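Input (GNAT family N-acetyltransferase):
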Amino acid sequence: MTSVPDGPHPTRAEIRRVRPVDAARMRALRLEMLADAPLAFLETLADAAARPHAEYAARVAATSTGSQTAQFIADPGGRLVGHAGGTVTPTEPGLTVVYAVYVTPTWRGSGLLGDLVDAVAAWSRACGRPELMMEVVVGNDRAYRAYQKIGFVDTGVRVRHPTVPALTELQMRRPA
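Output:
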């Protein structure tokens, strides 16, 4: 559980793996993510908004179980306030790639980012993958510093952004 001050009583968010019943709230969070940080994710807001609910539901169902891909959410009991995913990579069997990390602005600085990544890390370890890797757009200093605070280290590897060729991403790693 992560807490964020909300008046005299803290509001808490449960960190857990997505469930099929989360599909509508995941769609809403995905649209928020893309509106807030359009370069951080691999699709446009317009494409995501045009996708039918059935596609969101199928993806949530697919990532709610198994060891290949997983999504974790921060759920305070209403609107979702955070997300982090993890997936395998065929080239490094001991590695989980962390993707689509997002914390809604009002929850930033609450520790939620670390809790979400820790959930991905626990899942990764349980699947026999002892290392995490993520990519961050070069120049996104806020995200870079936040990931450093939770143990990620810049590897020095730079790659072209997958959808905006003018941008470069840097790779960061940490133990799971």
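Residues 122 and 176 are 7 Å apart (CA to CA).
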